[in-house]
């Protein structure tokens, strides 16, 4: 499922925009964890399957667009001076959601800010008990129904609605006539989720209706100081996770940012060159790696996942999902193994914490845990494998997404999160 999640600096290389601290208005994201455990503490296989299939389908759909957009230069946008306030919705671990307002008068709803998708969609009906509410389209005087249907089909269900436009506000900054999907039918495991929709932060080429994204519209209207945003995901259930639009939050990381070129300008993918358990390299090879704040697990090709868990003592395959082909491993909860990556352009190893490798307790016993690294084969339009780097990794690293970069090509930068 939204394999859900979401999501600054002391030293910035000259190629990056400078940190903005005193004037930055930022939005603080938070939410509730996806329920991967049953009440008795056992691993919930059905929820895990839905999360995996949602993430898998996001990238399968994107493969259809890649040949047309790969290598295309992102249009230049003028530099604005406005900044964005960030609102704190509470504490979170896996599912990171933040406030978004839509319509006239404004209706405020919690949404997931997802770097792994480009669409904005909002529920317009009450599903189950709808504890977080939904968008009342008929109460907005600025809502326009474009009379166009939109359906996304996944292995475990579908999302159906109509394309519309309305005024959308995040952190006090607004875009009029923003395209989005007003969802009227959901059958994919979102019904019990702690959010009313998704705000995609990937590139317009991935939007199902191929209209400017919220970020595109902020840029074209000169509403960002810099065409950049940063994501900080706090560890555990602590407060403080944040998305900063138009600036880098220098208080959220230590050391210097390391910058990597984006490969396709579809999703935020950089090139992984090595996969590690501790200091031991278990796989070398150039594989595209998409940074995905909407993925509650890290999804790697099965051969790489097998190599990772082979290097973790007493690991074993615990569950196989025949629908997606996903493999879930378990291992002793007391393990101190840390999974890490290198990315093209740097020899630096980027490890997630050992605690981040644990996603949930396994049915085999209280002393064994399910790994947050899941094996599943997802391929691009040329048949080459893709890695999806999700929240377990991003909780250890402050991530910066530059829509232009020094040369006009988008970049992703990483620095150790505080």
From TrEMBL:
PROSITE patterns: ASP_PROTEASE, PEPTIDASE_A1. One of its GO terms (molecular function) is aspartic-type endopeptidase activity. GO terms for biological process: proteolysis. CDD domains: pepsin_like. The active site is at 114, 292. Keywords: Aspartyl protease, Hydrolase, Protease, Signal. InterPro entries: Aspartic_peptidase_A1 (IPR001461), Aspartic_peptidase_AS (IPR001969), Pepsin-like_dom (IPR034164), PEPTIDASE_A1 (IPR033121), Peptidase_aspartic_dom_sf (IPR021109). Residues 96-415 form the Peptidase A1 domain. It holds the Pfam family Asp. Residues 1-17 form the signal peptide. Belongs to the peptidase A1 family. This is Aspartic peptidase domain-containing protein. It comes from Leucosporidium creatinivorum.
């Amino acid at each position: 499922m939204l394999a859900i999640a979401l999501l600054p600096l002391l030293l910035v290389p000259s190629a990056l925009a400078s940190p903005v601290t005193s004037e930055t208005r930022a939005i603080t994201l938070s939410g509730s964890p996806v329920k991967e455990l049953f009440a008795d503490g056992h691993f919930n296989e059905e929820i895990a399957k839905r999360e995996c299939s949602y993430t898998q389908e996001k990238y399968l759909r994107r493969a259809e667009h890649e040949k047309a957009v790969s290598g295309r230069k992102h249009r230049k946008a003028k530099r604005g001076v406005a900044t964005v306030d960030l609102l704190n919705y509470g504490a979170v671990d896996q599912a990171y959601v933040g406030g978004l307002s839509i319509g006239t008068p404004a209706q405020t709803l919690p949404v997931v800010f997802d770097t792994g998708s480009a669409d904005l969609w909002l529920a317009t009906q009450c599903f189950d008990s709808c504890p977080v509410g939904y968008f009342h389209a008929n109460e907005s005087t600025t809502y326009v129904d474009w009379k166009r249907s939109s359906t996304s089909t996944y292995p475990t269900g579908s999302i159906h609605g109509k394309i519309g436009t309305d005024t959308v506000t995040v952190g006090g900054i607004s875009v009029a006539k923003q395209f989005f999907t007003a969802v009227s039918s959901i059958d994919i495991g979102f019904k019990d989720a702690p959010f009313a929709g998704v705000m995609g932060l990937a590139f317009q080429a991935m939007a199902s209706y191929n209209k400017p994204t919220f970020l595109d519209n902020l840029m074209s209207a000169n509403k960002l100081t810099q065409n950049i945003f940063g994501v900080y995901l706090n560890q555990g259930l602590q407060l403080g996770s944040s998305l900063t639009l138009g600036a880098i939050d220098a208080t959220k990381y230590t050391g210097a940012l390391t910058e990597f070129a984006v490969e396709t300008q579809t999703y935020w993918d950089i090139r992984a060159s090595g996969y590690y358990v501790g200091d031991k390299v278990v796989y070398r090879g150039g594989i595209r790696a998409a940074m995905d704040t909407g993925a509650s697990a890290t999804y790697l090709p099965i051969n790489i996942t097998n190599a990772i868990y082979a290097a973790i003592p007493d690991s074993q395959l615990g569950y196989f999902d025949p629908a997606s082909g996903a493999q879930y491993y378990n291992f002793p909860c007391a393990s101190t193994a840390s999974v890490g990556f290198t990315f093209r352009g740097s020899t630096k190893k980027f490890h997630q914490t050992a605690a981040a490798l644990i996603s949930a307790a396994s049915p085999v016993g209280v002393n064994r845990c399910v790994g947050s690294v899941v094996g599943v084969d997802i391929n691009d339009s040329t048949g080459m494998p893709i890695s999806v780097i999700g929240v377990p990794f991003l909780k250890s690293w402050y991530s910066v997404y530059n829509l232009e970069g020094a040369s006009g090509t988008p970049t992703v930068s990483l620095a150790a999160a505080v």
